[in-house]
Write a structure and sequence with these properties.
The protein is α+β, with helices and mostly antiparallel strands and 620 residues long. The chain is 36% helix and 22% strand. The chain has 14 helices and 29 strands. The strands form ten sheets. Strands 3-4-2-6 form a four-stranded mixed β-sheet. Strands 13, 14, 15 and 17 form a four-stranded antiparallel β-sheet that branches. It has a four-stranded mixed β-sheet with strand order 20-19-22-27, covered by helices on one side. Strand 24 and strand 25 form a beta hairpin. Helix 1 runs antiparallel to helix 2. The radius of gyration is 56 Å and the shape is elongated.
């Protein structure tokens, strides 16, 4: 008896020494250096082995003690074959934690020390239970139970924990004291969705969805990070409506959810899904995004062909709201405006870009232009007038309002609701509209006037053709809600050499006629100027005569004659002052010329003094 007591005391002393040794090793090196784990663990193991024979056990730091009971009663719960929560014979569900002295019955128990489970930052731990209740049929994962993150094995088993893969996970940057005989932990990276992209989710477990629905119904589950909430909320297997936004890490259980990202899309096994489908949808300036939903209510016969506007779905970012509020499948009236960036589910929507900027369309020889041009189907306009081939180029400027874009996609684009979604930058809808509506209106107009006109009428009526064509185009576009900005018609060109020569002769004759017409106009203008000058001179002379008559009445004819005589003298080479008698004047003025001046002045004065006969016009 005394010997047994001594052995017990010795074992206790050795265990205490091991603890002190290990603690000293940690304290000396500090928290930034790893302890002398090998020495401490060896002493701890030695103390544990010696103590286990005496019923005492100390678990080394950062380790877990797994208890094996060699003797005892059989497990009363037949559900658990390997591990027992009832302190019966076999591996115990409970564990021994470090930092305390455990008393066990000697020989009956064996202690196994294993390192604690550490999940690094940026990782998660996936748990597989080797013991537990059987799962219900149809479920592939064990349900979550309260067991302190799998650190309480007994609670896991007694609370109904199920064997196999578990719904719950272990978060990163943490350590766990887990019974590795009961739970196996696999360390895997967290789910990361690259910035500017979306992550698509496929549920591997859950309820079976209705056959007419391609998506599992939406369940609030913290972005698929709460697996239990997903299943308890009625989450369904298959593709999910909700997406994972980019630039974020998620703690998602890959046993329950498959997440498709840009980094693993090529190996996802999803036919037709590529990396470009997972990128956020950005609408360029000068464009509108026409949305085609790939799921929704089926429009009834006779109803409008474009889906009605549904509220509160945040521009199709919340597809379950769209569906719950009765959204239709197909082309939607609501569009995505220029400059918007949306994280959308490519399994649910397809977005078609339609230009809303000013478009310039040319009916011309395209040469090496690509088929991506909106006017790629438009060639030079060719008409047959009385057997002569004429060609002309046309330029039309138009604008497609954003509100009209859905109708163009519905009538001229690929509006099918099958296949993959994502952003589609395809010029086909606008090309078809331009070719069928605009091109058809232009061809119809020119064929009509060509059948009703002669070559001369066709060529000389250019101004009227241009005006009528602009009105025809404007009306054709307005029927679709498209705005016509300008219509520019080029010059007609003939493919017939004889017609060109005839047109040149006609042109030359027209130019000669115009030249003669201008000469005639100039002659008429000159005659009018001469007539105006003569009329002005006549009126001036009449005014002079009237003034002379007035002077004769006041001064008499002789006085006026003398004044006129003297006025004539001023224009001759006669001195200003002549001294002497009249003989001196005759030196400078010939006698005959002086007599003529005097007689002329007197005659004019007499003529003015005589009564004038009335003019014929006045008599009349």
């Amino acid at each position: 008896m005394i010997l047994l007591l001594v052995l017990v005391l010795a074992a206790g002393t050795v265990a205490l020494i091991g603890l002190v040794w290990y603690g000293a090793g940690r304290s000396k090196r500090g928290p930034s250096h790893p302890p002398r784990r090998q020495s401490g663990v060896l002493v701890g193991y030695g103390a544990g082995v010696l103590g286990s024979w005496m019923g005492l056990c100390v678990v080394p730091a950062d380790h877990v003690g797994i208890v094996h009971r060699r003797f005892g009663s059989a497990n009363p719960d037949q559900r658990f074959k390997r591990i027992t929560p009832h302190n019966a014979r076999g591996v115990q569900a409970r564990t021994l934690l470090p930092g305390r002295l455990h008393r066990l019955t000697p020989v009956v128990h064996r202690i196994e020390f294993v390192p604690r489970t550490h999940v690094p930052a940026g990782k998660i731990g996936l748990v597989v239970a080797t013991e537990g209740a059987k799962r219900a049929p149809g479920r592939t994962l064990g349900r979550s139970v309260d067991c302190d993150n799998f650190q309480d094995g007994a609670a896991f088993l007694l609370n109904g924990g199920e064997q196999g893969r578990q719904l719950a996970i272990l978060r990163g940057d943490s350590s766990y004291y887990i019974n590795t005989a009961l739970f196996q932990v696999d360390i895997v990276p967290r789910t990361f969705v690259e910035a500017g992209t979306v992550g698509l989710v496929i549920a591997k477990d859950g309820a079976i969805r209705a056959p007419d629905r391609p998506f599992g119904r939406y369940v609030e589950c913290d972005n698929f990070q709460d697996s239990s909430a997903f299943l308890l909320g009625g989450g369904e297997q298959g593709r999910q409506l909700a997406i994972l936004t980019g630039g974020t890490h998620y703690d998602i259980n890959p046993y329950l959810f498959e997440v498709i990202t840009e980094s693993n899309v090529h190996g996802s096994g999803q036919s037709g899904l590529y990396a470009e489908h997972l990128r956020e949808i950005a609408i360029p300036v000068g464009h509108a995004g026409v949305v085609i939903t790939l799921d929704g209510a089926e429009p009834q016969q006779g109803e409008r062909k474009v889906g009605i506007i549904v509220r509160n779905h945040s521009s199709f970012r919340l597809p379950w709201v769209f569906l719950d509020n009765g959204g239709w499948r197909g082309v939607q009236e609501e569009t995505l405006g220029e400059g918007s960036v949306c994280a959308l589910n490519p399994w649910f929507v397809r977005v078609v870009l339609i230009p809303t900027r000013l478009l310039i369309l040319d009916w011309s020889n395209k040469g090496g232009s690509t088929s991506d041009n909106y006017d790629s189907a438009l060639d030079r306009i060719s008409v047959n007038v009385q057997g002569h081939r004429l060609q002309v180029e046309l330029r039309q400027t138009l604008n497609i309002p954003e509100a009209v874009a859905p109708r163009l996609v519905r009538e001229f684009g690929d509006s099918s609701t099958s296949g993959m979604g994502g952003l589609v930058n395809n010029p086909v809808p606008v090309q078809r509209f331009v070719e069928q509506v605009l091109g058809g209106a232009v061809d119809t107009y020119f064929n009509g006037i060509a059948a009703e006109s002669t070559v001369e009428e066709f060529l000389t009526g250019y101004a009227g053709i241009r005006t009528d064509l602009a009105a025809q185009v404007r009306n054709a576009l307005a029927a679709w809600g498209v705005e016509a900005a300008s219509t520019n018609l080029g010059e007609f060109e003939s493919l017939d050499a004889d017609l060109d020569r005839a047109r040149k002769r006609v042109f030359d004759a027209q130019m000669r006629t115009q030249e003669l017409e201008e000469q005639r106009k100039n002659a008429v203008i000159k005659a009018e100027i001469r007539e105006t000058e003569l009329e002005a001179d006549r009126k001036e002379r009449l005014l002079a005569v009237a003034e002379l008559e007035r002077k004769i009445e006041l001064l008499g004819p002789d006085t006026i004659a003398m004044q006129m005589f003297l006025a004539e003298l001023r224009h001759m080479n006669v001195p200003q002052v002549v001294s002497g008698e009249a003989e001196s004047l005759l030196k400078y003025l010939p006698v005959q010329r002086a007599l003529e001046i005097i007689d002329g002045a007197r005659h004019r004065a007499d003529q003015v003094a005589l009564p004038q006969p009335a003019a014929p016009d006045d008599e009349e």
